[in-house]
């Protein structure tokens, strides 16, 4: 940790001075949390007083979307302000992050900001092979730990708020800062039964319609909720640090998550529970608070907002213009509801998530979300969306059928679906999570937020489907997506620097 402190102090001292009015920036990201799982949204199974505080003092967003339902490409998109298909290897999971893509922390550093991060920055992946000298999120601050008595069972020992305090002490006097807090919660694995043991009740669990309502599922959801609360406690500690230093009012605080909850048919899927995220933003010195905003917002807009607030240019000299649109005019207004009606669509993408198929293939998807509809294009519908059902053992022999599905994080909910898959009451949930899907999916979010009824073949939705299909095609072409080129680039060929599994060749 000392090495990082010295580096930050030297780099910040050599940088050009930032504007005196420049705000501090605190970007706070949980790991695998879906909208609406914060008490500010009315969730009863989770209590998030720190997030709720930001929502009350600032702006609560109801339609914020991740650019990918997986952590590594989603974080890369936020850092670089570009969609995953614009980021080469960084647009897939556990690959590299080409140095040609500047990140907002590095831009702010060049403008005179002190920068740092704690917890999970960009990852998983290998940033060193691209020639980078540090994580794209900046210099790392680590080393502080919480006692077992001070944290729920199964939660990481990292004292993120303590690491933030060390960063503030190391910051050169008079410098604004940008700090990235990437929690490891509520990423799996959870401590099984920890939610109930903490006093949560099974009847309070909020079971989404794509999961069976069983005690095992409810308990798993309460374990997830407990980890969200642990994340929120660390956010509260950071807000206390800012108050202590008298800097909370002039700090742009952004709180969100990288992708959806680690449950079947959520994370690693471009459905609502995979890409729809909580978001609250506070800057009490300038932003009128107490508002709920329904505009469609993407992470690339957050990147543009951070740079706009700091007075830093958004475009690379050697790359196409970044696609994000700053939220600063919206934030500085006093309006609620839909503030900027021209925000008609947001977009998301998935390529390879885990190593889950033959030859390390991914499951390429693109999605466009309007206020009312979600359209998804599955480029390889013959592949299994949750991963091949059968992996090879170490000796090359086939493992158990239905023993893989590695694009779903292992846990009690996946285990329950697999073990009870032949029961009529469970089969539809199992098939909804793992069965092959058509090339197009279209959902009316107003009546089907769980994305269960595919309307792509509905005669009543021909016009709306065509509008979304055409809008997605136009955007992907305008932003250079290799998937829509006559000779599409192959994201499956980017190196993977995490575990690689073997699967039987498809028949």
Description of the structure:
The protein has 507 residues and is an alpha/beta fold. It is 28% helix and 13% strand. The strands form two sheets. Strands 1, 2, 3, 4, 5, 6, 7 and 8 form an eight-stranded mixed beta sheet that branches. Strand 10 and strand 11 form a beta hairpin. Helix 3 runs parallel beside helix 9 and helix 5 packs parallel to helix 7. The protein is globular, with a radius of gyration of 22 Å. The N terminus is likely disordered.
Secondary-structure map with pairings?
Elements: H1 2-14, E1 24-30, H2 49-57, E2 59-65, H3 71-80, H4 104-110, E3 114-119, H5 160-170, E4 177-182, H6 194-197, H7 215-244, E5 251-257, H8 272-275, E6 276-282, E7 291-293, E8 297-298, H9 299-310, H10 328-332, E9 346-350, E10 365-369, E11 373-378, H11 412-419, H12 424-434, E12 440-444, H13 462-478
Helix pairs in contact: 3-9, 5-7
């Amino acid at each position: 940790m000392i090495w990082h402190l010295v580096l930050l102090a030297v780099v910040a001292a050599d940088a050009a001075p930032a504007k005196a009015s420049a705000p501090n920036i605190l970007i706070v990201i949980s790991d695998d949390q879906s909208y609406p799982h914060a008490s500010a949204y009315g969730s009863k199974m989770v209590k998030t007083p720190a997030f709720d505080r930001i929502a009350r003092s600032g702006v609560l967003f109801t339609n914020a979307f991740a650019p990918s339902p997986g952590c590594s490409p989603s974080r890369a998109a936020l850092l670089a302000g570009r969609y995953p298909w614009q980021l080469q290897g960084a647009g897939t999971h556990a690959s590299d992050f080409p140095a040609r893509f500047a990140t907002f922390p590095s831009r702010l550093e060049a403008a005179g900001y002190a920068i740092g991060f704690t917890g999970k920055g960009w990852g998983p992946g290998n940033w060193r092979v691209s020639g980078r000298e540090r994580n794209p999120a900046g210099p790392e601050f680590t080393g502080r730990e919480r006692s077992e008595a001070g944290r729920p069972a199964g939660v990481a020992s990292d004292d993120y708020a303590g690491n933030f305090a060390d960063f503030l002490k190391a910051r050169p006097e008079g410098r604004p800062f940008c700090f990235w807090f990437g929690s490891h919660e509520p990423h799996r694995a959870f401590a099984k039964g920890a939610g109930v043991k903490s006093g949560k009740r099974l009847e309070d669990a909020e079971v989404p319609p794509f999961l069976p309502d069983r005690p095992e599922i409810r308990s798993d959801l309460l374990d997830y909720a407990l980890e969200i609360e642990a994340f929120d406690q660390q956010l509260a500690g950071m807000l206390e640090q800012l108050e202590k230093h008298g800097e909370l009012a002039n700090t742009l605080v952004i709180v969100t998550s990288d992708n959806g909850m680690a449950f079947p048919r959520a994370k690693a899927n471009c459905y609502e529970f995979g890409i729809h995220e909580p978001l609250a933003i506070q800057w009490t010195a300038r932003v009128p608070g107490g508002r709920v905003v329904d505009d469609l917002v993407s992470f690339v807009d957050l990147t543009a907002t951070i740079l706009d607030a700091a007075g830093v240019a958004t475009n690379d000299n050697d790359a196409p213009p970044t696609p994000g649109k700053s939220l600063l005019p919206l934030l500085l207004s006093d309006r609620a509801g839909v503030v900027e009606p021209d925000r008609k669509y947001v977009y998301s993408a998935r390529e390879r998530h885990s190593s889950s198929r033959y030859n390390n293939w991914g499951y390429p998807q693109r999605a466009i979300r309007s206020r009312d509809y979600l359209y998804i294009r599955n480029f390889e519908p013959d592949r299994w969306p949750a991963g091949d059902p059968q992996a090879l053992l170490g000796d090359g022999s086939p493992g158990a059928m239905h023993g893989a599905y590695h694009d779903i994080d292992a846990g009690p909910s996946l285990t329950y679906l697999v073990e009870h898959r032949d029961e009529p009451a469970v089969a539809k949930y199992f098939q909804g999570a793992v069965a092959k899907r058509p090339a197009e999916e279209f959902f009316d979010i107003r009546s089907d937020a769980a994305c269960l009824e595919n309307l792509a073949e509905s005669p009543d939705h021909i016009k709306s489907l065509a509008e979304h299909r055409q809008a997605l095609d136009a955007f992907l072409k305008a932003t250079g997506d290799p998937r829509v080129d006559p000779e599409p680039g192959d994201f499956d060929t980017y190196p993977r620097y995490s575990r690689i599994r073997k699967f039987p060749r498809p028949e």
